[in-house]
Design brief:
heterodimer, A: alpha+beta, Ubiquitin-like (UB roll), DNA polymerase, domain 1, 2 domains, B: Aldehyde Oxidoreductase, domain 4, 3 domains
């Protein structure tokens, strides 16, 4: 039995300790915002926060999140729309949209650590894959989210 | 030309009374559909098969096309909203039931990938459709960049009818003459602007009113919404993580299935041994078409079992020894000696007295699609009904395949189309629905979600065909300056059109090349000859974003640059000369060149390349700017793109689709290569089949060109073909190295 907090709720799951967090979320907890893309931590579609740190949940054994706090795309907005999601809507980022929860979670973590990221910071941290090629819109939206977070716009 | 000819061929069949449905494709009003068709609920009123209104003032538009990122829900809703003068924030979309009214006529007329010479193929296709669908030409499909083109007239007609009905309903309700009423900003008003009724207030007053013949459509100068970058309808849900893709379908009692496909193409499983006990989370292992599936309450556990705990006895496919080197050798022999399936000449051949030959051979590899959402399909087989939930590009084909797999009549199959996490042509294929229905039959009454790992996706795709081409030109050296006398292209590739028709629909194999791959270049060559050889082979090939244009544009546009070098002309100048009679092409070319600063100096080790390709009714030119700082590392810094797609529905979506097409094509140009060894694909996942990521994405600018055409072109695919040759031409400008093979490698 593994106990952890997901999107503000205490959860307990009876799963093998080596079952990746992604599949615990999707199969055992019905949280399907984090997506399966590669299974080898390459594409980032499965990105969630564990204790505030962005992780590729397809490759993180559930045993390692015991007693920790997990936030998925479903739990990012608490009460009001998160600045990253607001910027994503303003900049009309998604196309197919499948990879976007991963990008949004990676961006939210980036901005929490670095409120005014440079283009170089964005290049380095946002190594996720988007096959629709929304990258230029993503870059615009990251800067816009940083501006929203930095104060009244 | 293609359109006219296809229309004539199909018109001939239909007009001849074979199908007995008259000139359906010419009359938009025949595509309106009945007012009860579109799942009309108690608080709603149907205005046609395409549009209904609800008491809460919503306008609900039917979108029978796959939303795979191309913005089709938004584009179709905009067409309806424009003609009925709805407010954009009152519009939403819903899936209609599967019905022939929602058929994609354009895909049949213009986008079936056969060449215009192939009347027989088109006729066969139409016959097949007629036979399978009981005399109604009604394939629901999304592909060939056709969805907006197809809806351009019928959806606007439905909007105009809706508007007229609302005016009549308001007249009935308020006792005001129709002539005194208008629709404006989503409500019916008197001509002085005072409100008479909201749309919601008219739900009970539409009744038996009729609007026949349909009222005239707006002139482009009257458009209020079309041409504006309205926000997409699908984005809020996608940003909140609330959009349901195929993989997100959750049903009571859902089981998951992982699949291991036969390693060699066309192979199958003849038996298997499970090592030890079935683990917790896996209920059974079964043979499915093309492989084995493990089914249980955990996909992760089922997949792990297949990787580690099952020994499968594989029946190899027809070519278990196939490897890439051997295939290229086979293609080289075909290029040298084979009888072409299609030969075409344009112009008159004149042999110059003093001639110089310019020749080049180009190669393009197999490519996988790698949609972000791995392949999946959910199916449930109850006593006499089969239900399918699937991200797919053709519910009609999925229904046919499901019915066949379950051996039930088509009428007993329902297909629900979810959001698609990318399509790119891969999701027109029926392999997943066959496997899912097979699993569902093994677990009666329980829904089963088949999901492939990324490794299965990359190793069991329907690939963009590998292709080999030889371009040859004769230059006339008798004058003061060399002149172009003739050009000839000979190419070898498999035909995805042939393979797809056979495997998805049981069409006879025609042995004909795929049409996009043999379209004529737009240039006024004095003499042009094409010889297209169709390669046979067991490697499955399919439709990959822009289909045959994807490799043909690389061959053609690289060679135009090689001609420019031989003729001692600037590549832009040569294209300009050869496009003298094509004002739309010319304007696109000039726009891209000018916006890119063509001819302006660049630092050493940098270069610009240009390429142009017309596809799917649109014309696109791109200028790539590359840097090769160390002679080995290729960086694509900037891409300038110009497109003339005729009338623009939503410019933000057109721009996004151009950027999307560029990045998709650039991933292939820089990294994309599927290779074979021992009859199997060598690549497995993103680490060895990579895509362009944010850090490598060029700065892009997109310019919309108005060439005066009133015919609407597609935008989903036309952005892809020019990028590979634009980059290859830029590499030559930067380094003097001519790269004739994809992917582009300097070292």
């Amino acid at each position: 039995m593994i106990s952890f907090t997901v999107n503000g709720q205490a959860r307990q799951v009876d799963v093998e300790a080596d079952k990746p967090l992604l599949w615990v979320l999707r199969e055992d907890l019905g949280i399907v915002g984090p997506k399966f893309g590669c299974g080898v931590a390459s594409c980032g579609a499965c990105t969630v926060h564990v204790d505030g740190v962005p992780v590729r949940s397809c490759s993180l054994p559930a045993g390692q999140v015991a007693a920790k706090t997990v936030v998925t795309i479903e739990g990012l907005s608490l009460g009001k729309l998160h600045a990253v999601q607001q910027a994503w809507i303003e900049q009309q980022v998604p196309q197919c949209g499948y990879c976007q929860p991963g990008f949004i979670m990676a961006t939210a973590a980036l901005l929490a650590a670095k409120p005014k990221p440079s283009d170089g910071d964005i290049d380095e941290v946002l190594s996720n894959i988007c096959r629709c090629g929304t990258y230029s819109a993503i870059r615009r939206a990251v800067h816009r989210a940083a501006a929203i977070l930095s104060g009244p716009s | 030309m293609k359109f006219t000819r296809r229309k004539a061929i199909i018109g001939g069949i239909v007009g001849g009374g074979l199908l007995g449905v008259g000139s359906w494709f010419a009359r938009e009003r025949d595509r309106l559909g009945s007012r009860t068709l579109f799942n009309v609920k108690a608080n709603e009123a149907g205005l046609s098969g395409w549009i209904k209104i609800a008491r809460d003032n919503s306008v609900i538009v039917a979108v029978p096309r796959a939303e795979m990122g191309q913005g089709i829900q938004t584009a179709l809703a905009m067409l309806a909203a424009e003609e009925m003068d709805a407010r954009w924030n009152q519009v939403r979309v819903e899936d209609p039931p599967e019905d022939g009214v929602y058929r994609n006529v354009e895909i049949l007329i213009d986008a079936l990938p056969f060449s215009p010479e192939e009347a027989g193929t088109v006729v066969d296709t139409v016959h097949w459709v007629a036979e399978k669908l009981g005399g109604v030409l009604g394939v629901l499909a999304t592909g060939g960049s056709t969805a907006t083109r197809d809806a351009w007239l019928p959806m606007r007609t439905a909007g105009a009818v809706a508007r007229d009905l609302l005016v009549r309903a308001a007249s009935r309700k308020a006792g005001i003459p129709v002539a005194d009423l208008i629709v404006s900003e989503g409500e019916v008003r008197r001509k002085d602007g005072s409100r008479v009724a909201t749309f919601g207030e008219l739900v009970d007053f539409v009744g038996d009113l009729s609007s026949m013949p349909p009222p005239p459509l707006k002139k482009p100068s009257e458009f209020k919404l079309l041409g504006k970058p309205l926000p997409r309808l699908d984005i809020p849900a996608k940003v909140m993580g609330a959009a349901t893709f195929g993989i997100d379908v959750r049903l009571p009692g859902l089981l998951y299935a992982a699949v291991l496909n036969a390693p060699t193409f066309g192979g199958s499983a003849s038996g298997f041994n499970i090592k030890g006990q079935l683990p917790k989370g896996v209920e059974t292992v079964i043979i499915v078409p093309g492989g084995v599936a493990a089914i249980g309450s955990s996909w992760w556990r089922a997949n792990k079992l297949l990787k580690e705990g099952v020994e499968v006895k594989w029946q190899p496919g027809p070519e278990p020894q196939l490897d890439s080197a051997g295939l290229w050798k086979r293609y080289e022999e075909l290029l040298a000696t084979a009888e072409p399936a299609l030969t075409r000449t344009l112009g008159t051949e004149n042999k110059p007295a003093i001639a110089q030959t310019v020749e080049a051979i180009y190669r393009a590899p197999y490519l996988a699609h790698t949609t972000m959402e791995p392949m999946n399909c959910t199916a449930r087989a109850a006593k006499s009904a089969v239900e399918v939930w699937m991200p797919n590009q053709s519910p009609t084909l999925m229904r046919l395949a499901a019915a066949k797999a379950a051996d039930v009549p088509q009428a007993q199959v329902t297909v629900h189309t979810t959001f698609l996490g990318g399509g790119f042509g891969r999701r027109a294929e029926v392999d997943l629905v066959r496997q899912a229905v097979t699993c569902a039959l093994a677990m009666p009454e329980r829904p089963v979600q088949v999901l492939w790992s990324r490794e299965q996706d990359i190793r069991h795709d329907y690939y963009r065909p590998m292709a080999l081409a030889r371009w040859r030109a004769e230059l006339d050296l008798s004058g003061a300056a060399p002149k172009l006398a003739s050009v000839a292209k000979r190419k070898v590739a498999q035909s995805p059109a042939d393979q797809f028709g056979a495997r998805a629909a049981g069409l006879p194999v025609q042995g004909k090349p795929e049409g996009n791959a043999v379209e004529n270049p737009p240039y006024a060559f004095p003499f042009y000859r094409l010889d297209a050889v169709v390669a046979e082979g067991s490697v499955p090939v399919g439709f990959w974003r822009s289909v045959g244009h994807s490799h043909t544009a690389f061959f053609d546009e690289s060679f135009v640059d090689e001609l420019a070098l031989a003729l001692k002309k600037d590549p832009l100048v040569l294209r300009r000369d050869l496009l003298a009679g094509k004002p739309r092409h010319l304007k696109v070319l000039e726009t891209a060149a000018q916006a890119a600063g063509w001819g302006q100096p660049l630092p050493a080790g940098s270069g610009r390349g240009i390429a142009l390709r017309a596809s799917f009714g649109s014309i696109v030119a791109q200028v790539a700017e590359v840097a090769v700082p160390d002679g080995k590392t290729l960086q694509v810094k900037r891409v300038t793109c110009a497109i003339d797609c005729g009338p623009v529905v939503n410019p933000a979506i057109v721009r996004a689709q151009m950027e999307s097409g560029i990045i998709y094509g650039l991933s292939a140009a820089l990294y994309g290569e599927i290779t074979l060894a021992d009859g199997a694909v060598e690549q497995a996942n993103f680490p060895d089949y990579d895509a362009v990521r944010l850090a490598d994405a060029p700065v892009m600018s997109v310019h919309l060109v108005d060439g005066g055409s009133s015919f609407i072109g597609g935008v989903g695919e036309p952005g892809t073909p020019p990028i590979a040759p634009a980059v290859a031409n830029a590499v030559f400008a930067a380094t003097g190295k001519r790269l004739r093979s994809l992917p582009l490698r300097l070292a």
